[in-house]
Specification:
It contains six helices and no strands. α2 packs across α3. The model has no long low-confidence stretch (mean pLDDT 92).
C-alpha cells in the first residue's frame, strides 16, 4: 500500500511525528490527526512541511485542492 503524503513527510523526518511537528510548529497530536484523516493538513502549513522534508513532499501533494495537482518529477524545477 502506498503511503499518503503526510505519512511520507513523517518518514522524511526520521519517521517521527514529533520531529515533523516541531519543524512545522504544531503538536504531535495535530500531526496524528492529519495522518489519520481527522483533519486535513491546513494550506497554511503545507509550505512548512515541504521545507521540513527538503521538498520530498510538496504542497501540491498535500493539498491538490488548493495548490493544484503535483507535476511529474521530470517537470519539477531544480531547486
Amino acid at each position: 500500500m502506498d503511503k499518503s503524503p503526510i505519512q511520507r513527510a513523517i518518514a522524511a523526518c526520521e519517521n517521527s511525528k514529533a520531529n515533523l511537528a516541531r519543524r512545522v510548529g504544531v503538536t504531535p497530536a495535530m500531526v496524528w490527526q492529519w495522518e489519520n484523516g481527522i483533519r486535513p493538513v491546513p494550506a497554511t502549513r503545507c509550505a512548512a512541511i515541504e521545507q521540513a522534508t527538503d521538498g520530498a513532499v510538496t504542497r501540491q501533494e498535500l493539498r491538490p485542492d488548493v495548490f493544484g495537482e503535483p507535476q511529474p518529477i521530470a517537470n519539477r524545477k531544480a531547486g
